[in-house]
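Lab notebook, bench 4. The sequencing result for the construct came back, and we need a structural model before the next group meeting so we can plan mutations. Quick request posted to the team channel:

Model the 3D structure of this chain.
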Amino acid sequence: MGAPDTAFARLRYLLTRQSGVVAREQVLACGFDSAFIRRRLDRREWLRIYPGVYITHTGPLTWTQRAWSVVLHAEPAALSHGSALRAAAGRPDAFDDAGPIHVTIASGRRFLAKEGMVLHHRANLVDDALMNTAPPRVRVEEAVLDLAAEATTELGMISALADPVQARLTTADRLLGALARRSRIRHRSAISDILIDVRDGSCSTLEHRFLTRVERPHGLPAPARQTPTGVGRPGRRDLEYPEFGLIVELDGRLFHDNALARALDMERDLDANAFADKDSVRLCWVQAAERSCTTALKLGVVLRRHGWTGHPHPCTSPDCAVRNQQCSQ
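Done. Here's the predicted structure in token form:
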């Protein structure tokens, strides 16, 4: 194979790996010169995205092409925060990050962020990033902890930690291990507490809210979490009280994705009742997170009806529905 053929083969490999995005230095390293790049730009076969970074078409960029453009422009660099998680998930609908691309570079390096990117600095970029992935990205555990540390609300922190575990991008134990290696991080105690809960079965943001707002503060019995359905459609129950024949499903969606999704949820509830002789209670976000005291009171009534001999007790809130119920008796 002649030299020109070899150069084109190298370029084709790069364009395939990098979703049609390439840097000037890479083109030159393949064996081409500046005139080659200029001709493609003049013919509008290529488009300049950032100085020295080109895309091989003139249409809209995909998210992956945007990510490659930012990483190549800031090289050596790696995707970080939500951008790293989206790349790791490998699905365009996972970890929605439609805004600017988050990218991290080595601490102390001077670099001016351009439009479409958010720049971060990292002391241990080589150790914390996977530079051989396409595109390079910070390790999942580090990206998750970065997002949790920057969360401005408790809900945001829980979501940052629970969602990647539920998506099976990592585990709570891996995150706890990464947390132990980071000597300086905001919200360390809160992050550790949430991860322990996630490790023990609280897999989603709503499940953690149920655990910390309904179950624990009001002394409700601890359910088994994420148990197999065993009958009907394969899947897992959010919460199950086997000794009381009761299932609690937590629906974190404000609205169902579609009518079929809601029908399948209802079918699973019916399967539990018909084939396993278990009652099923379905709670939405408002009940589990925003009306937690009232939900604890009502769930206590249901549990006692199924054989629980205990009673829910008031939480620390002066307006707790359980306390008010006791006062009215």
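The domain at 1-59 is CATH 1.10.10 (Arc Repressor Mutant, subunit A).
Will bring this to the meeting.
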